[in-house]
Amino acid sequence: xxxxxxxxxxxxxxxxxxxxxxxxxxxxxxxxxxxxxxxxxxxxxxxxxxxxxxxxxxxxxxxxxxxxxxxxxxxxxxxxxxxxxxxxxxxxxxxxxxxxxxxxxxxxxxxxxxxxxxxxxxxxxxxx
Length: 128
Ligand SMILES: [Zn+2]
Prior knowledge:
The chain is 23% helix and 29% strand. It has 3 helices and 7 strands. Strand 6 (95-101) and strand 7 form a beta hairpin. 19% of the residues are buried. Zinc ion (ZN) binds next to loops.
């Protein structure tokens, strides 16, 4: 299992977006106030060509813009970890991608869970 997209999960939760809503661009707001995501639900799938079967997305200018705060991201992370019991930084694999290149992908031990794959927020914080 790969790491979950916590920003996407937070955006869907906070803004009541459909489960298949996906961010296409991410940008951090000034002074670390949060993130701006632009995304959409797929508008179909490619029926042919090299991207056959992959979801189709609207053009950048047509994406929906949503803002989430750092705190909302943090809450989404805690919720996800409480539900799954897994480390949200590595998705429970205990490994993080170190680099990707022509010779393949290299991994390192996840620094958040020390390679255990278990959630760390679980005992630490409870949502108010
Ligand atoms: Zn981890």
